[in-house]
Amino acid sequence: xxxxxxxxxxxxxxxxxxxxxxxxxxxxxxxxxxxxxxxxxxxxxxxxxxxxxxxxxxxxxxxxxxxxxxxxxxxxxxxxxxxxxxxxx
Amino acid sequence: xxxxxxxxxxxxxxxxxxxxxxxxxxxxxxxxxxxxxxxxxxxxxxxxxxxxxxxxxxxxxxxxxxxxxxxxxxxxxxxxxxxxxxxxx
Amino acid sequence: xxxxxxxxxxxxxxxxxxxxxxxxxxxxxxxxxxxxxxxxxxxxxxxxxxxxxxxxxxxxxxxxxxxxxxxxxxxxxxxxxxxxxxxxx
Amino acid sequence: xxxxxxxxxxxxxxxxxxxxxxxxxxxxxxxxxxxxxxxxxxxxxxxxxxxxxxxxxxxxxxxxxxxxxxxxxxxxxxxxxxxxxxxxx
Amino acid sequence: xxxxxxxxxxxxxxxxxxxxxxxxxxxxxxxxxxxxxxxxxxxxxxxxxxxxxxxxxxxxxxxxxxxxxxxxxxxxxxxxxxxxxxxxx
Lengths: 89, 89, 89, 89, 89
Description:
Five copies of one chain form a homopentamer.
Chain A: E1 2-11, E2 14-15, E3 24-29, E4 41-45, E5 54-59, H1 61-67, E6 76-81, E7 84-87
Parallel strand pairs in A: 4-6
Antiparallel strand pairs in A: 1-3, 1-5, 3-4, 5-6
């Protein structure tokens, strides 16, 4: 998984029907200092994350597991909201 | 998924026969400011996307799910056309 | 797999229920000189790794195999603690 | 998939026996201007590509599908030869 | 697959038990000029590769296929030793 920050939402009316009902969140990956790093991911929210929250997201098969939609074309999902980080780098 | 812009199409007469009938779109990934970033992907269109449109694309198994072709050598597919982005980075 | 260093832990109260009981470790990938390189991964610990330890981590399906949780939204796991490196680059 | 150019071939006598009979092509990924970008991939040829040709290649499970060898340790394959590119970036 | 050079070995006493018996080789990916590029991978040797040898390695599911250990947390494996490269970039 990666740490990320939810920075937006996205609406796509014309989309794969298996994505209907999935909330698409624009998620910015973060570096070890929790600064933005790398390009934004469009992740399915599975935990009720809101804009501005720090989250962890998973990619690949793990994201379809998180969404409980193994037959949907999902490759990224938010799987947790970060409460606390204890870092020593 | 990633945000991208359809920047072209591609014709390959000599190709895996399982790709026949799939429209191959050259897709430029975008950064958080919706500027081009990273290298172009050749994605199968599954939603009727046109050149110049902002889309979301998925990679890996998710793309074969989108194409409804689990036995085709596809690793990227356009899964939605973006109508609206609400971003706050 | 990649070499990494455990640099922190992370608490997420609101998370996918399949992640309950998995210890989430913030892991910094390392380069050939064992210096930090690239962005931190949130990996499930499966070997009792502690902060500051050099470890190897796996991603993708391999991480769910390591966690013995094929139905959990895991895409990275610590699979070994490094005792000794013999390098000649 | 990605656009690439076949830049070489590779011989490995000592290799996984499931790779016997697969032609290994060194493939340079290309950017949107069709210039070399990123590091070379060793891809199994499945379409009769020759050195210097522009091709599309797939990675991961898609490459084993292309090679019709689901039990071979293949993670990249050439799946089409590019005839024509219409790009507008 | 990628071209790489074996630059070291690694010992991890405390590790996933499914990794017991697998030789872990530190492998440096190479660019088109066969110079080091990118960060080292820890790959399972499946072909008897030695330090300093040029090899090809596979990642993901392909690596578990190569290791003949589908239930081990492996995501990278050496699948061939390079005898000859014919490159024209």
